[in-house]
Every structure is written in C-alpha cells, then in structure tokens.
C-alpha cells in the first residue's frame, strides 16, 4: 500500500481536523521529520509560530516563523491572539490562534513544532483534538554526536546544548506517542502511521454515522 492510498482512504469520510504536536530536544531530527510530513501529506499544514528570536540564515519571515519584536509579541499576547505561548531559552514563542481555528474548521490537520510548555497549554485548551508525539534520539552518545556535528562548537557550547536537551527530554512522559529516531526513513513512516491511525478514530470521523446509515438502511 502506498502512502498516498492510505491518506486518500482516510479522508473520504468527513472528520474533524486534529492538532498534531511534535516536540523533541534539538538534534533528534524533528525539523527533518516535520518537513517530510508537510511535503508529502496534503492534509497537513504547519502552524507558523511568532517568535522574538533573531532570524537565522536560510529562514524566511512568514514561512518558518513570524519574526516580531518583544513589544509586538506582548501586544499580541495581551490581545488574546495566541493559543499558547512560552519563553524558550530566553526568547518568546507563540502559536497564532486564528490560522489554527480556520484550518480546523476546514477539516485540515495542523502540525505544531512546539516545546513541552506549548504542548501542555494546548492540552488545557483543546484536549480532544490533540495528538502529542515526542521524538527521541537513540542514545545519549548519538545525541551528543549530532549536536557536535551541527557546527564546530566548543565543548562548552555542546555541553549547554546537552543540558537543554536533557531538560526537554525530561517531559517525554507527557506525550501520547514516543518515536525513537534510529533511522530517519523509519521514523517518518512511524509518524505517518500515527497520523493515519488518529485520523481513523471513530470519534473524529464526524461523517461516519451518515455513511453507516446509508449502508445499513439504503
Ligand atoms: P528554534 O528557535 O530553534 O526554532 O526553536 C526553539 C524551541 O522552541 C523548539 O523546541 C521549538 O519546538 C519551540 N517552539 C517553536 N515555536 C513555538 C511556539 O509557538 N510555542 C512554543 N511553546 N514553543 C515553540
């Protein structure tokens, strides 16, 4: 069965959109996995967060993040424009509310690349439509190797990144699913399996009772 056929089958019956939250320490492969899912899954869109952190080379305003000043961020927060917001490693991040509500109303699934604080907050606001996945590295050594390979950083910088990673990983048990990224292709398939299974949940398929009534009482 191709991936495409799985998605087509799942989306024949009307259903509610879901909020697919993916968290991990940096170095676990989250960005690559999210990009692969977004590229191949027509029913998945990314929630583009607002952040006060400086733009990095290769990033695009409005695509990777909405890059805003602290002043603008706090105005947006005061105006209730965020579904959740958090301070992560010294910068502010927030999920704009309006695009998420629009996408959900259209039955679109939304992918959130947010940290454990955001996942917790969404759990309080939209518990039923939330699916939380945590990506883990295969081992401590492998995580350190990946963090070291990112750039020619000093041991101190690598140690700091490891400490941040440990703090994020300590929240693993708050998630519905855990995917260990031994191999990126395999991890991608596992993420896809989670999405498909969650889409098939009976309670999420709002068009099911209509469809069934046509079968049993034509
Ligand atoms: P980075 O600055 O490296 O892109 O992201 C740093 C961390 O902030 C990552 O763990 C990322 O998942 C998290 N993050 C990105 N956007 C949001 C957001 O809107 N809300 C929360 N709570 N975390 C976010």
Structure commentary:
The mean pLDDT is 91. It contains nine helices and nine strands. Helix 2 (30-40) crosses helix 8 (184-199) and helix 6 (140-149) packs across helix 7. The strands form two sheets. It has a five-stranded parallel beta sheet with strand order 2-7-1-8-9, with helices on both faces. A four-stranded mixed beta sheet has the order 4-3-6-5. The radius of gyration is 19 Å and the shape is globular. It has 218 residues and is of the alpha/beta class. The protein has helices at 3-10, 30-40, 70-78, 97-105, 116-125, 140-149, 155-169, 184-199, 208-216, and strands at 19-23, 44-46, 50-51, 66-67, 82-88, 91-96, 109-113, 130-136, 177-180. The protein has a domain at 3-47 and 108-202: P-loop containing nucleotide triphosphate hydrolases (Rossmann fold, 3-Layer(aba) Sandwich), CATH 3.40.50.300. Helices cover 44% and strands 19% of the residues. The two termini are 30 Å apart. Bound molecules: guanosine-5'-monophosphate. Residues 49, 53, 84, 86, 88, 93-95, 113-115, 117-118 line the site of guanosine-5'-monophosphate.
